[in-house]
Amino acid sequence: MGDWDWKYDPDARHVIGETPNLAFVAQVEERADELVRAAAALYPDGASYQGRSPGVQDEVLPGGMFQYLTVVRQQCLYIVQVTAWPL
Fold first, then answer.
1. CB 44 within 8 Å of CB 72
2. Domain limits at 68?
3. Res. 1 pLDDT band, cuts 50 70 90
4. What are the pLDDT digits (tens) for 10-49?
5. DSSP label at 47?
6. Gap between the Cα atoms of 69 and 79, Å rounded
7. Average pLDDT, the chain
8. What 8-state DSSP symbol labels residue 10?
9. What CATH number has the domain bearing residue 65?
10. Quick one: which of 8, 21, 37, 78 could link to 12 by a disulfide (CB 3.0–4.6 Å)?
11. What is the pLDDT of residue 81?
12. How many domains does the chain have?
């Protein structure tokens, strides 16, 4: 996977909030791991990449959705919003 990683932006408390649905948060983090592996394969030389980054994208999962921003030159996927559907 190289140096690729994912993070909550600005931090987990701000993005996740006080959601009681910890199973959904685990799904988000598992999917983020998958997206990082995909980005590392798609952009193997991410730090020297000269094109545009993909921008903010939505990911819908059972139980909710999240938005993330992939910044290729930083080799990082930033989760910027997590929305769990009401239980």
1. no
2. 5-84
3. very low
4. 999 999 988 778 999 999 999 999 999 999 999 988 888 9
5. G
6. 6
7. 92
8. S
9. 3.30.2310
10. 8
11. 96
12. 1
